[in-house]
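Sample intake — Mannosyltransferase
Collected from: Trametes coccinea
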Amino acid sequence: MSTSLDAIVFLASWMYVSLAPYTKVEESFNLHATHDVLMYGVQRESLNHYDHFVFPGAVPRTFIGSVLLAWISRIALAIASKLTPFHDKVDIQVMVRLMLAGFNASGLCLLRRAISRRFGGPTSVLFVILTLTQFHLLFWMGRTLPNMFALIPANLALYMLVDRAPNSTRPSKENVHRAIGLLTFASVVFRAELALLVGPLAVQAIVRQYTSIANVVKVGLLTGTVSVVATVLVDSYFWQRWPLWPELYGVYFNVLDGKSAEWGVSPYHTYFSAHLPKLLLSAAPLSALGALLDSRIRSLLAPYLTFILLISALGHKEWRFIIYMVPAFNIGAARGATWLVTRPKNSLFGRLSFLTLVALIAVNCFATFLFARSSFANYPGGAALYAFNRMFASEDNVHVHISNLAAQTGASLFLHSNAPPFLPGFDAGHPTNWVYNKTENLSLRALTASKQITHLIAEIPALDSAVMDSWSPVAVVDGFDGWRLDRHVGQAFKTGVGDGLKALGNALVMLRSEKLVILRRKS
């Protein structure tokens, strides 16, 4: 049973990678850094080929996660290539993301085992069920956001805090120190906001006498110093700027200099009123029930709730800044769900409790289905470039310009299938002299005037009829716009229950529209 639950978590995370293999612009730094480490190596003379010197982004990010992911992926690719040869670089992108998803799944599986030891087998099973029926955690933990690299040590830290005997009143001193060390490392290297979790956790450990102030300071200083030295050495090398501590630079840029406000400012309550409900779905009320019933859950969630209260003071808010909270709240929710499902079934209250849990999980499944369907259709750039590579696979000397929308919605370096660089020993099996051009701010007239450009992947609204005489549309790629509720469902029920149920299955209609067009220059 235990192994089966772990396997389901792995398979679910890998399924999302397979069904949505393309990426968005916010994932691009780490994805392209991993690409460059894989393809070019890490020698100093290779650095000038790296993508981050062309598209550096608003703030520098660490290379530590990308380097480790590239090295691990290289081993996995070497093993997988013995079974089946790789003929397209997009397969390498999928493998890279499978590795990241696998590491995050491993953390969840370790955590599930700790939950089983402390709260019992039924609670660990319900933890898995709730996690599987939520969308964001499993879908995103195979995506190369810095937050998903930070999620690995964050989940390991939570595992350290949970892993103890059922009646133990405190975690071991060693586990507390490891948890503080892991979160300190993650906040120094990957995501600085995790410092707002280290603080409350350290205060709780001292107040409840899990450890001493001296030990907390010692662990924090030692781990912090090692982490700072590591990130400064590694990232100064890859960015060719000395000294560089990316997360400190990010804190100055986004918080002290207030630049994050340029991406939008939300009210203080947004994490509680919008982001947590979206991330947790029915686990939100269930975690409240678990905290009400079990003092162990209240103790566990206290630092995480404090973290959300602290980070809410920052104006710019995104759900991914609090993604680390989801497993902790799911533990509380699983405890609440266990209470509901174990009420005696010979009473009305017991039967209603069980049905309530079933209904809540059903709501999760429905919401996750909608989130997944919309997300699968939300990468038109990746779909367009993949289709383009297939359409013109036999042609030489192709020079394609990729529009901004295409670049932001999936047209990553791994989809430059017919142009170098390639992994050593990689058998392309198709032309390798193409040019993929992502030069920004070029009008359609300028692209038309540039005769070396043979093809375009252009945005539909950007098309200019005055120059379309030079281009032939080859294919159109659509994308997700939203959902529409069909209001004729009620009328269908008036004609009969059968007609009504049939109409109910199509009550929600996905809205799609044309996003990108593939153009070929006319002879």
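Post-analysis note: The chain is about 60% helix and 10% strand.
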